């Protein structure tokens, strides 16, 4: 009897234990579901308050007591308005009824290349932004210098490349640390180690030219093709490391060097510098056309020396003529705000559209005389504040334009039918394919003009599409010495607009824009449809005759 009682007691304890554990499991499952739902609520609230182009939600922790901790990972160190970002995220979280306490941390994502074009030394550089002008003497180098250091002041990891071989200005605009010259190579990568100035990695031909370490760099006595190659090697041969932005001070004009940079480094965008007046606007329009043909987005337009403001009255005088910034921004397909005019509100509206005006500022001249960026020498000056706004605008525009870079198609060779295939892997045309027989694409390169001829044509009248063969879409296949057996051996992106192909017959000088490949593919489709229609008509005629 006693044994039976013991057994019954044990069974009862087992049942109670099982019920307790089952209840505990249900409680844990319910708590886990509740936490998962709360984390989902948090992510949804943050998605409404924080733009995904600015920051990613790296982690979320929602406790049972109503406390929430989130980690927002900034996509760029050069992100303006960090306090406002945290405030917006915190307000969104506190709007949730169950939240009692919030903690918002900011971290930084590693640089992620916006473009797969460019050398290996730029693989850890998120954005390469060119600062260009259609002619010299407009303050382009000054804008590039202060843009780079304004980005660094915002917390960005920044580099500055002076790409002007013939007249490098960076050595006279910054003061290098003691012992920075001569520039040395890394023992492991064999790349040049750029000097650093206030956290910005800087490189110029003036730092490596003969006599640079003595402060007497020799002039570059080289022809155009050699100069282009030198600039390309300077960009590719420097150990840039991890950067949010590499600012490239482009050579003035629309020649070979600018074209080479557009093709070789994969620009995320460009900041175009001009001055007031009709003639300057006409020249700038040509530079905008070249960038458009090269598919380099214009992120912002800067009109330097736009006005002089009387310190005592605040009245602005436009000494060099009226502003064309708004018209140029519109032609560059930039969104624009209100027309530029005297007055803060209108100026801010214009800047919101990507057109910035810089005044004639004595502080700028004084800073340059001391070989200092204005944004460091006089950070509270009107021009320095304008550069800060420009830096914030460019950062946002570059990140927002990343999606457009991701929509660039892939080009490959399909051996099964001997076709070069252009395929969109993302964006509105995702999955769309265009196929061109390799022999026909190779034949279209026969009439392609050289890089220098293309640049000259665009600079003259803008009529020649960049890199396009003069007979881009012939009416039918051409007989060509290359023969039907020609095939691509290597296909590599060039800039944002096309690919370079090394062919089995040894040809490798032409660049094939994506538009040209698409035109040829569509022409092939039309010919195939026409032949199919003619075949059906012939069959129908034969059938009626019989």
UniProtKB/TrEMBL annotation:
One protein family per Pfam: ParA
Swiss-Prot/TrEMBL keywords: ATP-binding, Iron, Iron-sulfur, Metal-binding, Nucleotide-binding
Transmembrane residue ranges: none
Domain Gamma-butyrobetaine hydroxylase-like N-terminal: 429-516
SUPFAM superfamilies: P-loop containing nucleoside triphosphate hydrolases
GO molecular function: 4 iron, 4 sulfur cluster binding; ATP binding; ATP-dependent FeS chaperone activity; metal ion binding
One GO term of the biological process aspect: iron-sulfur cluster assembly
Chain positions covered by the region annotation Disordered: 460-488, 525-546
Family classification: Belongs to the Mrp/NBP35 ATP-binding proteins family.
PANTHER family from the UniProt entry: IRON-SULFUR PROTEIN NUBPL
Protein known as: Gamma-butyrobetaine hydroxylase-like N-terminal domain-containing protein
Originating species: Diacronema lutheri (Unicellular marine alga)
């Amino acid at each position: 009897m006693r044994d039976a009682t013991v057994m019954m007691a044990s069974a009862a304890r087992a049942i109670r234990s099982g019920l307790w554990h089952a209840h505990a499991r249900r409680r844990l499952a319910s708590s886990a579901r509740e936490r998962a739902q709360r984390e989902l609520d948090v992510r949804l609230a943050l998605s409404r308050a924080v733009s995904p182009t600015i920051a990613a939600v790296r982690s979320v922790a929602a406790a049972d007591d109503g406390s929430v901790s989130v980690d927002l990972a900034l996509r760029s160190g050069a992100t303006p308005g960090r306090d406002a970002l945290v405030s917006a995220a915190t307000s969104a979280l506190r709007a949730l009824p169950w939240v009692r306490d919030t903690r918002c941390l900011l971290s930084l994502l590693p640089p992620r290349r916006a473009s797969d074009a460019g050398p290996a030394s730029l693989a850890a550089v998120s954005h390469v932004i060119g600062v260009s002008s259609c002619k010299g003497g407009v303050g382009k180098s000054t804008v590039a210098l202060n843009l780079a250091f304004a980005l660094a002041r915002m917390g960005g990891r920044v580099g500055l490349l002076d790409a002007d071989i013939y007249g490098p200005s960076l050595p006279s605009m910054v003061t290098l640390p003691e012992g920075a010259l001569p520039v040395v190579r890394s023992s492991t990568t064999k790349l040049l180690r750029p000097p650093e100035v206030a956290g910005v990695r800087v490189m110029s031909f003036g730092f490596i030219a003969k006599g640079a370490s003595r402060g007497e760099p020799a002039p570059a006595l080289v022809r155009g093709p050699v100069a282009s190659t030198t600039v390309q090697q300077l960009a590719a041969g420097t150990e840039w490391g991890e950067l949010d932005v590499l600012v490239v001070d482009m050579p003035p004009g629309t020649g070979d060097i600018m074209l080479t940079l557009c093709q070789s480094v994969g620009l995320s965008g460009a900041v175009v510098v001009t001055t007031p007046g009709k003639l300057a606007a006409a020249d700038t329009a040509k530079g905008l056309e070249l960038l458009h043909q090269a598919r380099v987005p214009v992120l912002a337009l800067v009109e330097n020396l736009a006005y002089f403001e009387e310190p005592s009255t605040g009245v602005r005088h436009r000494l060099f003529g009226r502003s064309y910034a708004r018209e140029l921004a519109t032609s560059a397909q930039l969104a624009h705000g209100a027309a530029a005019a005297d007055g803060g509100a209108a100026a801010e509206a214009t800047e919101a559209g990507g057109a910035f005006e810089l005044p004639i500022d004595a502080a700028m001249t004084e800073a340059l005389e001391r070989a200092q960026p204005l944004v460091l020498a006089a950070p509270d000056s009107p021009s320095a504040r304008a550069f800060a706004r420009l830096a914030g605008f460019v950062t946002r525009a570059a990140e927002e334009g990343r999606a457009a870079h991701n929509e660039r198609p892939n080009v490959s060779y399909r051996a099964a039918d001997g076709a070069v295939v252009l395929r969109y892997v993302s964006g509105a045309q995702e999955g769309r394919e265009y196929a061109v027989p390799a022999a026909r694409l190779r034949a279209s390169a026969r009439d392609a003009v050289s890089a220098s001829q293309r640049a000259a044509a665009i600079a003259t009248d803008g009529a020649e599409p960049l890199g396009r063969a003069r007979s881009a879409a012939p009416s039918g296949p051409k007989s060509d010495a290359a023969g039907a057996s020609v095939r691509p051996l290597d296909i590599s992106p060039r800039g944002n607009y096309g690919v370079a192909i090394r062919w089995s017959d040894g040809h490798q000088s032409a660049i094939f824009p994506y538009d040209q490949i698409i035109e040829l593919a569509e022409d092939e489709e039309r010919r195939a449809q026409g032949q199919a229609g003619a075949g059906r008509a012939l069959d129908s005629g034969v059938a009626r005759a019989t």
